[in-house]
Specification:
By secondary structure, the chain is of the alpha/beta class. It contains seven helices and eleven strands. It has helices at about 15-25, 25-35, 75-90, 100-110, 190-200, 210-215, 225-235, and strands at about 5-10, 40-45, 60-65, 95-100, 115, 120-130, 145-150, 150-155, 160-165, 175, 180-185. Helix 2 crosses helix 7 (about 225-235). The protein starts with 5 loop residues before the first strand and ends with a helix.
Length: about 240
């Protein structure tokens, strides 16, 4: 049964000053994406990187944990606080969806492990094969493509988790844990201009050949609206 959602966005980053004017924040990008597939969603934004949280876990029907330049295993105070909050939400059976850093944090906190990948940086458009297709994954697809930007990966899933999508580069591209936890490594909210600027900013950090391949991949199509629809379907399931 579908319901009108109030969706809390746990915003885990502050964009570089040069990107803020055009792209604002991860929360803004997520709102822009989801309004295209489900305009009735109500949003509440919590900049957890600054220590801002809901007064009550039931303020929202579900929560999205955004991307971040940080790592799920870092020792920053705000990340430790977020890890504790994820445990609280999980104990309360609240729905949570993680994107990139959020995906890695959910796995890391709930019994899996995240670390820097031996496969190096992933940037630009990457495709993943759908391994398992739960009911909420409508429309059905055998694979999907999303913009990515990461060097950390989930290398071990929580014991009860199911791999939903996989690729040679990123074996745990998406996972589900029970009825309430969902993670996607890719960024459905990213647009090509933002991805391009991120790659340009990270020249000297990301190998040149990886950046050039990532830039070339921006000509490929992405399935961001389909993945957004999947996420909404998941959140709307009673």
């Amino acid at each position: 049964m579908k319901q009108q959602l109030k969706l809390g966005i746990l915003d885990c980053d502050i964009l570089h000053e040069s990107l803020r004017k055009e792209y604002a924040s991860y929360a803004h990008m997520i709102q822009t994406l989801f309004m295209q597939v489900e305009p009735s969603i109500n949003f509440a934004i919590y900049p957890v990187v600054e220590g801002v949280y809901p007064d009550d876990v039931d303020e929202c029907d579900g929560y999205i944990i955004t991307g971040s330049k940080s790592s799920a295993y870092d020792n920053d105070e705000w990340i430790g606080e977020l890890r504790n909050y994820v445990r609280t939400l999980a104990c309360q059976n609240k729905k949570m969806v993680g994107i990139c850093f959020g995906h890695q944090l959910l796995a890391h906190v709930l019994g899996g492990r995240t670390q820097k990948s031996e496969n190096g940086w992933g940037v630009g458009v990457k495709s993943s094969d759908v391994i398992d297709s739960p009911e909420w994954m409508e429309p059905k697809m055998k694979s999907y493509s999303l913009l990515v930007s990461h060097q950390d990966q989930v290398v071990q899933l929580p014991s009860e988790a199911t791999v939903i999508a996989s690729s040679e580069y990123c074996p745990n591209s998406a996972f589900q844990l029970g009825d309430n936890i969902l993670g996607f490594q890719g960024h459905p909210e990213f647009i090509r201009g933002y991805s391009r600027k991120l790659m340009e900013m990270r020249r000297g950090i990301i190998p040149d050949d990886v950046i050039e391949q990532g830039m070339a991949s921006l000509l490929e199509s992405t399935d961001h609206l389909v993945v957004a629809r999947w996420i909404v379907n998941f959140l709307q399931r009673s």
